[in-house]
Amino acid sequence: LIDNQESGYQFYSDEANKHLKEKLELQQDLRKALGNGQFHLVYQPQVDGIAKRVCGAEALLRWTHPEKGFVSPAVFIPLAEESGLMVEIGTCVLREACKQSVIWKSQGVEKLTISVNISGKQFRSEDFLGTVKSVLAETQAVPEMIMLEITESLAMSDVDKTVELLADLRALGLEVSVDDFGTGYSSLSYLKDFPIDELKIDKAFVDGLPNNKGDQAIASAIVTMAKKLGYKIVAEGVEELPQVDYLNALGCDLIQGYYFSKPLQPDDFLKYYFELESN
Ligand code: C2E
Ligand code: CA
Ligand code: CA
Ligand code: CA
């Protein structure tokens, strides 16, 4: 490796260094982003596919980087998680979503649930329950309007602890949803005792609908099981009308995806909400 001009190793380590440098820089930038108002939330409608009403909104975090512009949450959330920033960011997200629920309520929005993604580090943080309580008290949000989304793999990672915390959160009046369902190898025997309100079928299974036999089997099994257990069921990543028709026929409660709408700024969300109400 002395004469390394042409060696793959040198090339590899240059690339790796560049990668690492970029990552460290982004983590530095994330630290500043919170204080500098570079984060905001957008809201994706969740639509009752039969009644054509907006019943829910998933809050999704957006970061406008001063030089790079849009950075995907799929990139920066794991970085924030790794650098210990996600708990603080997550609390801000929850606070913002709670404030938004109060604003929309005052603007005449009825029976809407805002779903907030909760990361692993956040959910397992020292006093998550206490944080949620104080955010609710501070914002005066109606707990019944807020739903917490945790991923299936997080839910299954420490079942006893999870069940206890979810029960405490639901006792506050909040709802709980299991995100990315079907990807996390749940033991179905656990699922029946989970204190939850909703399951979200992962986009991975929605993509193959309505034609792929395997995805048909999985989607219909999830919907049937969710119904029997008394959980609401949401399909995510729905892009085409035939998917909507198929999921409606299965009895899926809510449809989320580009077919109805991309994530929207709060004002545009409000417009969309009343547009569907008036039809
Ligand atoms: P997720 O929770 O599974 O969110 C759904 C993602 O699918 C969102 O991507 C959404 O914009 C996208 N999506 C919705 N409908 C469609 C569709 O019809 N087609 C396609 N191709 N995509 C669709 P987004 O906003 O880029 O977020 C990516 C992930 O980042 C989220 O996946 C979630 O895991 C994470 N994330 C976003 N915001 C937050 C947050 O505030 N806190 C935490 N902890 N995670 C977040
Ligand atoms: Ca989610
Ligand atoms: Ca999801
Ligand atoms: Ca997903």
From TrEMBL:
EAL domain mapped to chain residues: 23-277
Protein name: cyclic-guanylate-specific phosphodiesterase
First and last residues shown, out of full length: 300 to 578 of 582
